[in-house]
């Protein structure tokens, strides 16, 4: 699954620099995650780094973007090959 940022986001800016795929960007009101770039840090780290640093715990898995580990690894390979 890709991750998503909920409206509980306080725009603290700590998640964006932690994303190895540059999937996080500042949206109109809160930060957003591009699901096409989010691999939940598969291929880079054991745990999603944005979730690790988020002080308000507002980065859950996106239930509309169900992906297994193999799919996330394939997405990682495509992103890093580009």
From TrEMBL:
Entry keyword annotation includes Repeat: yes
Coiled-coil stretches noted in the UniProt entry, renumbered to this chain: none
Any single Pfam family the record assigns to this protein: Fer4
GO terms for cellular component: cytoplasm
4Fe-4S ferredoxin-type domain location: 1-29, 31-64
PROSITE patterns in the cross-refs: 4FE4S_FER_1, 4FE4S_FER_2
Protein name, as recorded: Putative Fe-S center protein
Organism the protein comes from: Gynuella sunshinyii YC6258
